[in-house]
Amino acid sequence: MEAIITKILGVAKYTNKFFIIVAVGSAILLFSPKTLIDNLGLLQFVNVNKQYIGMAFLVSGVVTVANLITFIHKKVIRSIRSKRWLKRHQERLHSLNAMEKRILLYYFVNGTNTQLLAYNDGTVGELAGYKIIQRASNLSHMGARFPYNLNPWAREYLIKNPQLLKTDDIESALIQREIDREKWEW
User: Fold this and answer.
1) What angle do CA 77, 62, 4 make, to 5 degrees?
2) For labeling, which of 8, 24, 88, 92 is most exposed (least CB within 10 Å)?
3) What is the pTM assigned to this prediction?
4) CB 57, CB 23: distance < 8 Å
C-alpha cells in the first residue's frame, strides 16, 4: 500500500494534461457500453483490472478538478489585485502637485510619449514609484537625465479626466519658474 501511495504522489509532478487524458480514458473504460468495450477487445482487461481503472479515474479526476480550482482561484485573485492596484494608482493622479502636473503636461502639450527627466529628481521618483511614468532606457542623456515614458494606463486615465492636469495661478507660476530655471541649466 505504501508503494502505491508513493507512486501516486510521484505522478503528481505530471502536467494536468496527463491527468485529463487518464481521467477521460478510464471513464471511457468504466462507463462505456460493454458492446463498445468488447468491440475494442478490452472487455477481459476491464473485467480483470476494474478496481485499478476506477482508482486511476478517481485520482486523475480529483487532481484535474483540484488543478482547475487552483487555476481559477489564481486568475480571480490576480484580477482582484490588478483592479485594486489600478484603482490605487488612479487615485494618486487625483493628488498631483504642481511639479508632477508639469511633468505630465509635457507629454500632452508636446504630443510625445517620452521626455528626458533627471533620475535623481524626487518628483520623477514619486511618479515612477506609482508607475505613472517609467524609465524607457538605461542610457542617460546629458548626465543624470534619462528618457521616461508615460504609462498607457495613466495616459488613458488622464485623457478621460483632463481636469486632473488643470492648474491654478499659483501652480502655473511654479511651473513657469521651473521652466525658466531649466533654460539656464548647462
Assistant:
1) 130
2) 88
3) 0.64
4) yes
Apex 129 CA angle, 154 and 75, nearest 5: 70
Q: Where are the alpha helices (DSSP H) in 12-151?
A: 16-31, 34-39, 43-48, 50-92, 98-109, 122-129
Q: Hey, what amino acid is at 26?
A: S
Residue 15 cell numbers, joined: 502536467
What pLDDT, in 10s, does the model give residues 50-72?
A: 999 899 899 889 988 988 998 99
The pLDDT tens digits for 100-139 are 998 998 888 888 899 998 888 889 999 999 999 999 988 8
> What is the Cα–Cα distance from 176 to 170, expressed in whole angstroms?
10
Give the chain's radius of gyration (CA, Å): 31
Distance CA 72, CA 147 (A): 39
Phi-psi region of 143 (alpha: psi -120 to 50; beta: other; left: phi over 0): left
Please choose, from the candidates 161, 52, 20, 171, the residue with its C-alpha nearest in 3D space to the C-alpha of residue 100. 171
